[in-house]
Amino acid sequence: MKKRCIMTVASLFLGLSPLVAQQTTGNIVEYFGKERVERVDEGIILHSFKQGYFVPVTAPSGYLFTTSDGLGWEIATGKFRAPSANDLTATNYGRTREAVQWIPIEADSTGKFANRALRRAYVFTEYKADKPQIALFESSGNTRTFINGMPHEGDHYDFAYTLIPFRMQKGMNEFIFTPGRFGRVEAKLIIPTKPVMLTKRDMTLPDIINGEGEKWAAIRIVNAQEKALTGLKIQCTLENGESAIFTTDDVMPMMVRKVKFRIPGATSSKKGETKATVILQDKSGKEIDRTEISLQQKDASSIHERTFISDVDGSVQYYSVNPSTTQGDNQALFLSVHGASVEARNQARAYAPKDWGHIIAPTNRRPFGFNWEEWGRIDAMEVLAEAEKVFKTDPAHTYLTGHSMGGHGTWFLGVTYPDRFAAIAPCASYPDIAKYSRPNADAANVGEKHFPMICQAANAGRVLDLRKNFLQSGIYILHGDSDNVVPIEQVRRMREILGTFHPDFCYYEYPGGSHWYSNESVDWKPIFDYFRWHSVPSADKVKQLEFHTASPAISAKDYWVTINQQDTAYDFLPSPSNRRITVFRARRPMWQRLHSIFRL
Are 205 and 56 within 8 A, CB to CB? Predict the structure, then answer.
């Protein structure tokens, strides 16, 4: 019989062993894993924006482009009117349909428009060109950009990766930014040095592993011309002369695309930095551009990065490995999912190496992240499958943990794939996105009145509706009791919910712990002790189970049950008893012959 373990601040305080800690104050995204671009190598800076206007987003809960977002409606319909010193009126009305005023703003000494109000505001700026020409628009800190009314990508987490080729028109050019995470926006106009070039912004590079062969990598190509690029080749040559060449992806006109190439395996067993030359060639083999990159050459026994080709879109993705200090197959695998904008490499390095398993950190489609739902979910499961294959781990000893947004990812992935993880450990977490953004709303009914189909499509992420799946895994909840980013009430409520049905969970509030208080925010020894007690049973040992899913397209299988179809996609039926798939297995041979369709 499994025992329930509940620890609170009033419980016996465990001795803390000192670990090398990350910085413990400030915004976690500001100090944990940030790799911001601080220079321009792609051309000459024509203009840095210093003057602009901002206007608050008055739509409910800050939602853009809804029926209450008048300014968004104007942009979408081509009726937007630019603010000026003589007319600051903006039709960004909310429920009261009242016009609001644009507010002038100037860039600070670092060149950024910075104001906490910008986290819920549009920013407008403009540039008057004396002639038409192709330029690159660099922006950071915004979720998306409108250039002369056309939507383009943004840079929500402020990495400064964004480069947008566009044809600048003679006369006034208008730029509108939607809110980002930090309340700051920076923008520049760049005249490219070449119409086609490589840029080292946002590369995806593996480590060269001694004794292993070629690895996948990816680099971005800037196509600042109005014709497509086809038949491109990329040659990568290490400093010792080893080389690999690969026919890569096509690039659309006026587009920046990250494309894949091959890095040769090293025949030497050196360690440390290795330089490589990357050459972009046209279909005839003529050189278009070249750049030098730095790689790390390592043994597989050290912390390192690996790459693979994603089935989502054929792109190169990477994951980080903090390998076991013990060699051999059939060890444990700890899948650790990171928080918002934290890189996988930094997530993996927050842990001390373990002697009984490998710590694997996926990227969540870097550098932005998808809350570990949909693309993030697929990325996590692709990395899990890849790491299981590479390290030949024991499926019975696979565990899941994560911090902040990764804490939510732990709840979500754990409830979605209950037969994959022996135990899960959400840290600084929020279980349900709807409850996190609207804690006083019913998660199942958020926006249902105005956006019922969107809400139905989001049912797969309703962790609380799927909570009975947690019966199949152990759970350890860790949260700082002074967390000012994810309120402690998020997990206190989850503790109450689990207490009504779950026989095997632990709960610990770290005294005085903020959102990130040290590496022990994730590398907490009692978590790994708890993991040791748990294993995934073999299917023939599972006599009965209860399985919930919002869609078989996302989660269809649980041990010996497979759901092939549901009546209405992503729909929870009115009665909880109707939407629950509960199967009791009497004899194994009967279930081996079962091929019926289960319906929600």
Answer: no
pLDDT tens digits for 277-313? 999 999 999 999 999 999 999 999 999 999 999 999 9
What is the per-residue pLDDT for 93? 55
Q: Are 310 and 364 in contact (CB under 8 A)?
A: no
525 close to 558: Cβ distance less than 8 angstroms: no
Rounded to whole angstroms, the Cα distance separating 528 from 360 reads 14
Describe the strand order of the beta sheet including 51-56 as a list of residue ranges. Answer: 103-106, 51-56, 121-129, 171-177, 144-147, 150-153
As a whole number of Å, the CA-based R_g of the chain is 26
Strands 561-562 and 557-558: antiparallel
Q: What is the mean pLDDT of residues 461-488?
A: 95
Q: In this predicted model, what pLDDT tens digit does every residue of 39-60 receive, in sequence order?
A: 789 999 999 999 999 998 765 5
For 486-527, how does the pLDDT look when each residue is reduced to its tens digit (9 = 90+)? Answer: 999 999 999 999 999 999 999 999 999 999 999 999 999 999
- Nearest in space to 497 (alpha carbons), one of 526, 468, 525, 517: 468
Task: Work out the number of other CB atoms within 10 angstroms of the CB of residue 370.
Answer: 15
Q: How many CB atoms lie within 10 A of CB 112?
A: 19
Residue found under tokens 């930090």? 182
What gap in Å lies between CA 124 and CA 118, rounded to an integer? 11
Could you tell me where the DSSP H helices lie in 132-180?
Answer: none
DSSP class of 87 = B
**Whose CA is closest to 247, among 224, 266, 230, 264?**
230
Kindly report, residue by residue over 303-342, the tens digit of the pLDDT: 999 999 999 999 999 999 999 999 999 999 999 999 988 9
- State how far the alpha carbon of 513 is from the alpha carbons of 57, 136, 346, 348, 485, in Å: 33, 44, 20, 21, 11
Question: Which residues are bridge partners to 221 per DSSP?
Answer: 198, 257
User: How many residues are present in the chain?
Assistant: 600
